[in-house]
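Cont'd.
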Amino acid sequence: EIVLTQSPGTLSLSPGERATLSCRASQSVSSSYLAWFHQKPGQPPRLLIYAASSRATGIPDRFSGSGSGSGTDFTLTISRLEPEDFAMYYCHHYGSSPKTFGQGTKVEIK
Amino acid sequence: EVQLVESGGVVVQPGGSLRLSCAASGFSFEDYTMSWVRQAPGKGLEWVSLIRWDGFSTYYAASVKGRFTISRDNSKNSLYLQMNSLRTEDTALYYCAKAIRDFDLWSATDYWGQGTLVTVSS
């Protein structure tokens, strides 16, 4: 099983600031199979990024994803935080069974 | 417009059984892998199971294997999760989710329902 570890646990930032979220895999993950979701209270998760760097339909370009050559380190960057971006963020490996999620990073208003 | 509507969540005693349903519309259901993902109250996301578009392949998380069975009826645009031998740790909001790409077994999920709540308690 691929274990995904997200850091930091909580990110306290102000609107307009840049957010950098990390996701580290316990073994190499093909970039083709790494996604990012965000989730607001009382709502289902929403797909932001798939295949490590492809934005899902309707996702603004302030969201970007990247992966390292090692296949174990992935990053979600939000270039300028908008009020609606304050939420929980999960990375997700979906290339094999079992699919796994990271434990989440909470982006909160400072 | 893609819609996924889960139903069937109730309060059930440990050891009991339950069948969840997910009604799909707005896309060619028979062409897409479908998944169940759950979220315990106040906790993170846990993948539960997936089924190939034609129903010929299924996969399960270790925590539910042997107790849960995923199935689908493409003629009814419906996904199901039969849950047996329920445990208190199965208490969660259960979401169904659609693959982003057709005829792709290992695909990200782009649409999720609102979820149905299963509570296992005596």
